[in-house]
Amino acid sequence: MAVVVSHPIQHFVPFYRALSKVEGLSVTVLYASKIGLQRYFDRDMNTDIEWSMDLLSGYQHKFLPEADAITHTSAWSVFNPSIRTELKTLDPEVVLIYGYAHRTARMALRWCVKTHTPAIMISDSELRARRVLMKRAVKALIVPRMLKKFSAFVTVGDCNEDYYAHYGVSRERMFRSPFTIDEELYRKVRARRQHLRNTIRPAWGVADTDLVVLTVGKVNERKRTGDILDAAALLKSSDPANRIRFVVAGDGADLAALKMRAEAEDLPVTFLGFVNVDRLSEIYAACDVLAHPSSRDPHPLVMSEAACLGLPLVVSSQVGAVGPTDIARQGENAIVFSVGDTPAMARALKELGDNPEHLTYMGRRSIAIFEELDMERSVQGLLEAATYCVQRSANKFR
Q1: Phi and psi (nearest 5°) for 326?
Q2: Cα(367)–Cα(313) distance, integer angstroms
Q3: Does the N-terminal or the C-terminal CB of the chain have fewer CB atoms within 10 Å?
Q4: Which fold has domain 2-178+374-396?
């Protein structure tokens, strides 16, 4: 199997390592660029980022010859004509491609079609994002034609599967393979959760009996981080003695303004700024609930990270990780509110704060649901898709 991807992505590396351990499977990851290996400036996060983890060991990979010259991952900038030669040299039985947005991915797909090599698509596309009429019309013409070129699809959740079905993909060609996290690290942190809680919370000025609500991600308009402060203000005005505290882990364009507002209104909000991957799991462990009010998020991995640590999820209706068999399940481990309905989010948080038994139940469900959608499930889903492709290809050309 060849895997074609734009750059080393911290969440996917554990998946590649797990695949490398599968008997009878040889995987080579072909990287189009070296973005993420060195410190870089993230415009949305508004800070320099250097991932505190090993991104390259434990699996077979190769950087395409053009990798050094590619410095950002826009649709047109990821351009590696060498992909055709590399695939010809590898001669894989199947190719896993991350979407078709960038040029290298499309060239890889054309190579697959030309050589009759099955291509598997992975993406987090969904239908919840609001799109203008013209864009919907264009996608209706282009997307079905593009998807027909793929032999199978590894899907990350219910909304992702609905997207493919909407554009004509049969359910027979879909195989569930949830996005992965560094679950070895997160499980170790889960075992130490109470100790970490006792150690970290005093530094934030919160007590063990406080309900600590965490939000993780870029601090900007799309993530609607300001809604967190709105909820804090509503809860404070309705009950000044309430024990709900908020922690924001992330940086971005709105951070300075939100800090000023929190200070001016004396809101119980702690801003941590950007938290690297080696520390983020401990931050989850010290909190009680994850709130994610984003206006658009196809399938954020913060859902899986929080669920693994046993946090209930309070999420907006635009989050694509909500579904009956997905990581965020309404009525089990998640409370879903309409995007922008801050009073509804505040009520959900108050409900959890007032009902410790329900909070505990939802936390346990989060862990149980995560264990259903863990690395083993991810690897199995891809293996099922690959087997389907190879058998179908063999029958076709027999």
Answers
A1: -100, -170
A2: 12
A3: C
A4: Rossmann fold (3.40.50)
Q: What are phi and psi of 153, to 5 degrees?
A: -135, 125
Show the tokens assigned to 182: 């560094």
How far apart CA 251 and CA 42 sit, in angstroms, is: 10
The Cα–Cα gap between 398 and 389 comes to 14
Find residue 40's DSSP bridge partners: 49
Q: Which CATH class is domain 183-372?
A: alpha beta
What tokens does 202 get?
């005093």
The two tokens of residue 320 are 């694509």
Give residue for tokens 């196809």: 298
Beta strands in the chain (DSSP E): 2-5, 28-31, 40-42, 47-49, 61-63, 95-98, 119-122, 152-155, 174-176, 211-216, 244-249, 269-273, 289-292, 313-316, 334-337
pLDDT at 86: 98
Dihedral pair phi/psi, residue 184, rounded to 5°: -60, -45
How do residues 261-308 score in pLDDT, each as one tens digit? 999 999 999 999 999 988 999 999 999 999 999 999 999 999 999 999
- Rg (alpha carbons) of the chain, rounded to whole number: 22
pTM to 2 decimal places: 0.93
Q: Same fold for the domain at 2-178+374-396 and the one at 183-372? A: yes
Name beta bridge partners: 328.
322
Q: What is the pLDDT of residue 74?
A: 82
How many beta carbons lie within 10 A of that of residue 68, not counting itself? 10
Helix (H) or strand (E) run with residue 390 in it = helix 375-396
How many beta carbons lie within 10 A of that of residue 25, not counting itself? 13
pLDDT bin (cut points 50, 70, 90) of residue 41 is low
331 three-state secondary structure? coil
* Tokens, residue 111: 């190579």
Where along the chain do its domains lie?
A: 2-178+374-396, 183-372
Non-local (6+) Cβ contacts of 55 within 8 A are 8, 10, 13, 36, 37
First to last CA, the chain: 21
